[in-house]
Amino acid sequence: MLHVIARIELNGDVQDKFLEVLDKYIPTVRSEEGCIRYEPCIDIEPETRRKFVTIVEEWIDEAHLKRHLATPHMEEYRKEVADLRKSTQLFKLETR
Fold first, then answer.
1. What are the tens digits of pLDDT across the range 14-31?
2. Which pTM does this prediction carry?
3. Helices in the chain by DSSP H: which ranges?
4. Which of 55, 56, 74, 82 has an alpha carbon 20 to 30 Å from 62's alpha carbon atom?
5. How many CB atoms lie within 10 A of CB 81?
């Protein structure tokens, strides 16, 4: 199993808009073959709460993740959030 932590730093106070866009794509992503979990999370700490969105994902394997990243809906998502997103850190972990 592949675990993915996608840590998205936002451009200013745009978290509500970012989550609105992301919410449109969540049902499609969750229905993809190989997707086990796809959960957007926000920080608990007040200093960073509105600056980041973290997506916790689980995929059957890296091949399924790669197919997910190449889907047309993910290309649309990336275009829609381009101005809202400052940077993204992607951590891929596998279960021992």
1. 999 999 999 999 999 999
2. 0.93
3. 15-30, 62-69, 72-81
4. 82
5. 20
